[in-house]
Specification:
With about 400 residues, the chain is an alpha/beta fold. Helices cover about 40% and strands about 25% of the residues. It has an eight-stranded mixed β-barrel with strand order 10-11-13-14-15-16-17-18. Strands 1, 2, 3, 6, 7, 8 and 9 form a seven-stranded mixed β-sheet that branches. α5 runs parallel beside α7. The longest helix is centred in the middle third of the chain and has 48 residues. About 5% of the residues have low confidence.
């Protein structure tokens, strides 16, 4: 907004403003008095604009106005107040040579009755009270939310410490040989003698922003299992774990992961599964950087539940995945669904060309397995092979 003026230019503008406003005047910022032009080469009076010292009762009001106008030099500042009349004031900062002024444009409206004034004051008071109450309620809700979050963290930490959580494993099978090529670790919660599957509590933990404690717990348990195999000189079977995007995007994520794996060399035996539906599309680039850092450490990365709610194919390449896991919803009636067979055949072919493993989840019947193998599926997982079970049970079966 313009605030540098020549003398004649300013006088002309003030003449025009007189047609709109009841009072048009300049306030000398330094001398705190009403005036028009202060340079020595001009008189202190110009046309119908005269200067004069402010009335004492106006002084405090103008002090406040001047401070606000100077804080916001590039725009008009608006004021409204009562003094027998209702004054609407618009003011802006003006620079005339080396001197600084505030241009005040004042409109006034006669208050017909005192009760109008009282009504206005009452309305303003109610508005201020409403805003104050609204702010206080917002503060209390935030405080309660923080307290609830702290409480949830403590409860979950206690449950982990009390060994209420444990892992089951579901094998990943090579279709041609029926051999186990990997395991998926699945968390369960034994609470008051009742066994809770992940579906019953994971969503709640995600909503309460405490899911990272579960993710770190699962990673630690899997690392301990791999260490145990290593110490016993047993074959190490790759294990995949589910990890929420919010955990991956935490500032302390890599610090915690480093503490858990303790610089061991078996990170390549762990695959981190990221659920497609939980990926915030506005943070895919940030997530891809995290994925690359994990891969440099040695971790493999999988996209889980692909096709459950959507099938974002470009995401596979943006995240530079090692594995794609097809959701069970895509293979429920695969023997009859010719269109889905063609879709999956193209997915198998494309991923194979880019050396991306594809695992089909939710295999429950031999007919599903046969059809999928025929159209190019090589790896499977589901109840047809095994429900989630303890490692000893899987060992006995395979």
């Amino acid at each position: 907004m313009k605030h540098d003026y020549e003398i004649d230019e300013l006088a002309q503008e003030m003449d025009l403003l007189k047609n709109t406003f009841d009072i048009v005047r300049l306030i000398d910022i330094v001398k705190q008095r009403q005036c028009v032009f202060a340079p020595d080469s001009f008189q202190m009076e110009y046309r119908k604009y005269k200067y004069g010292f402010m009335h004492p009762e106006d002084y405090n009001t103008h002090q406040l106005m001047l401070r606000k106008v100077l804080q916001n030099k590039t725009t008009y500042t608006q004021f409204k107040f009562f003094k027998g009349e209702m004054y609407y004031i618009v003011a802006k900062y003006i620079r005339l040579g080396n001197l600084n002024f505030v241009l005040e444009l004042i409109s006034r409206k006669k208050i017909s009755e005192q009760k109008d004034h009282e009504k206005y004051k009452e309305e303003m008071k109610e508005l201020c009270d409403y805003k104050r109450i609204k702010i206080e309620r917002k503060r209390l809700r935030k405080k309660e939310s923080e307290e609830d979050h702290t409480s949830e963290l403590k409860k979950l930490a206690n449950s982990i410490e009390n060994n209420e959580f444990y892992l089951l494993y579901q094998p990943k099978i090579e279709n041609s040989s029926r051999c186990v090529i990997g395991l998926e670790a699945l968390i369960r919660w034994k609470q008051n003698i009742v066994l809770n599957s992940a579906e019953n509590f994971i969503t709640s933990f995600e909503e309460n922003n405490v899911i990272h404690l579960i993710d770190y717990f699962v990673l630690k348990e899997v690392v301990n299992q791999i260490k145990k195999w290593e110490q016993q000189n047993k074959k190490i079977i790759p294990i995949s774990i589910n990890m929420c995007c919010s955990t991956l995007l935490r500032e302390d994520f890599f610090t915690r992961v480093s503490q858990i794996i303790e610089n061991n060399t078996f990170a390549d035996k762990i695959e981190i599964e990221i659920t497609e539906r939980n990926i915030p599309l506005n943070r895919v680039k940030e997530l891809s950087i995290i994925v690359e850092k994990l891969k440099r450490v040695g971790f493999r990365i999988a996209l889980d539940d692909f096709g459950a709610n959507s099938a974002n194919f470009p995401l596979i390449f943006e995240l530079n995945l090692n594995t794609l896991k097809i959701d069970k919803s895509m293979v429920v009636k695969i023997e009859e669904n010719i269109k889905m067979q063609k879709v999956l055949k193209d997915i198998f072919s494309t991923c194979k060309a880019f050396k991306i493993e594809v695992i089909v989840e939710g295999i429950e019947e031999k007919g599903q397995l046969d059809v999928l193998t025929k159209i190019g599926s090589e790896l499977s997982q589901g109840y047809y092979f095994s429900k989630p079970a303890a490692l000893s049970t899987i060992k006995e079966k395979y």
